[in-house]
Design brief:
This protein is an alpha/beta fold. The protein has helices at residues 4-9, 22-30, 44-57, 81-90, 94-106, 126-137, 154-162, 174-182, 204-215, 226-236, 249-257, 269-276, 294-299, 322-328, 337-343, 347-363, 368-378, 382-395, 400-417, 420-428; strands spanning 16-19, 34-38, 63-67, 142-147, 166-171, 187-191, 220-223, 243-246, 262-265, 282-287, 301-309, 331-334. Helix 2 packs parallel to helix 16 (347-363). The longest helix is centred in the C-terminal third of the chain and has 18 residues, at 400-417.
Length: 431
């Protein structure tokens, strides 16, 4: 899994994790990837504390820091952060402050104690992000600084390069990627609209090849990609069949390359899914689109199925007719990753631990079947890992997707029928 970029940064896997949690930065880098700490919410003093903790826990491994210096913003040119903050505060009408305070008071929301108040002016300006850059550059293990909004200012790029570090910048269009490269950015991070929705309206499967073609030799990191990540992880988590819904044949090829067992076109996908599943439907729908596809996604669910609401790239926020949920005992669940992690700060590291287990098992030189078994066991799903191992051993299967189809397909069927004895006999003595 080595790439030129991985070699340049001294990491084993070209996997980058951008996070606001310092423990995740350490966990990712220790697993062979590259952790990047988002600095936008920290004062320079807080950032120093976070980076010192990372340095003490990461060993000799590298990591990065993500800052935000927009190309345009109100108050641009003011270098005094305190003065800029006051100028921006003065732009807020007093009646708006009064309305906000009365709203909080009427609902019994207490004031934040002075000791717990954060800096109101976040690191979204050169005045506030500049000191963050200086803090980051004072830590030798920081090998990369990324700008999450636009091309970094020329003097910032020059200073980072002079220190021997790499510069990365985020883009949502090929034209932005070209501007980054022309300015001297070393790595362009291409994030499709489904990867948070704040970089534009171009989907990952369209954006990535466009950016690659536009950049030439400049390396690109593919960010977001909720759909492709789902295709890769679903089999490892027990899905015996993964159906991808796409809008073009080019996207269909990408879906197949990322592990889809079946691919159907968006037009008429409900009927196509029904045909593939013999009329049963699917157990889970991961929906980042919403819009007019939402109802057919609900109709594609099997009884007791679940629809995961991830986003609304279709532009329209759909509504749910709850009689559909009642009749088939189906669930609609919101998957607001950002809001969840803010309230559950340990959840990111727990999820990474599960993925890191598989990477570490493979890194240790274990055959794929044993690596899956070990990872599943560490994730608390030892039975699933054992079944996949048996499937690969007995059927001489080299591909994980096929193994899961054999092992977990039998497991799910036996569990639903509650015929454990028949299931165990079939797995131990498959003949």
């Amino acid at each position: 899994m080595q790439t030129e970029l991985a070699k340049k940064l001294g990491i084993e896997f070209p996997i980058f994790a951008f996070t606001h949690c310092r423990d995740v930065v350490v966990a990712v880098s220790k697993a062979g990837g590259f952790g990047v700490l988002g600095a936008v919410g920290f004062t320079p003093e807080q950032l120093e504390t976070e980076l010192t903790w990372i340095d003490e826990n990461i060993g000799d491994l590298p990591y990065g820091v993500d800052i935000v210096i927009p190309g345009k913003y109100e108050g641009m040119g003011e270098d005094d952060a305190t003065k800029l903050e006051q100028e921006l505060k003065d732009l807020i009408p007093e009646q708006h402050r009064k309305f906000a305070n009365e709203l909080l008071e009427s609902h019994g929301v207490p004031e934040i104690p002075d000791a717990e108040k954060m800096q109101e002016l976040l690191g979204w300006t050169e005045a506030t992000a500049g000191p963050q850059v200086q803090v980051a550059l004072s830590h030798p293990k920081v090998k990369l600084l990324a700008n999450a909004l636009g091309t970094p200012p020329p003097d910032v790029i020059e200073e980072i390069h002079a220190s021997g570090r790499l510069v990365a910048a985020l883009c949502g269009a090929a034209s932005q990627a070209v501007r980054h490269a022309n300015a001297g950015v070393d790595i362009v991070i291409a994030q499709g609209t489904e990867g948070g929705g704040h970089t534009g309206d171009v989907g990952s499967m369209v954006l990535w090849p466009e950016v690659i073609d536009a950049l030439g030799d400049t390396p690109m990191l593919a960010a977001g990609g909720i759909g492709t990540s789902t295709l890769r992880l679903a089999p490892a988590l027990g899905a015996s069949r993964v159906i991808a819904v796409v809008s073009t044949e080019d996207k269909a090829e990408v879906a197949r390359a990322n592990g889809a067992t079946d691919v159907v076109l968006a037009d008429g996908f409900k009927d196509a899914v029904a045909e593939l599943t013999g009329g049963r439907g699917v157990d889970i729908v991961m929906d980042p689109v919403g819009g007019d596809r939402f109802t057919d996604s609900l109709r594609s669910l099997a009884p007791a199925g679940r629809l995961l609401v991830v986003g609304f790239t279709g532009g329209e926020i759909p509504t749910v007719k709850v009689n559909r949920l009642l009749l088939n005992n189906i669930d609609v669940v919101g998957v607001g990753w950002g809001a969840w992690t803010l309230g559950h700060p340990g959840s990111l590291s727990e999820q990474w631990d599960g993925l890191a287990a598989l990477l570490n098992a493979l890194k240790a030189g274990l055959p794929l079947k044993w690596a899956i078994f070990v990872a599943a066991h560490l994730m608390g799903s030892w039975l699933a890992g054992l079944l996949i191992f048996f499937a690969m051993e007995q059927a001489d299967v080299a591909d994980m997707t096929e193994a899961v189809s054999i092992g977990l397909g039998s497991y799910a069927g036996a569990r639903l029928m509650d015929k454990w004895s028949e299931f165990l006999i079939r797995k131990v003595a498959p003949g």
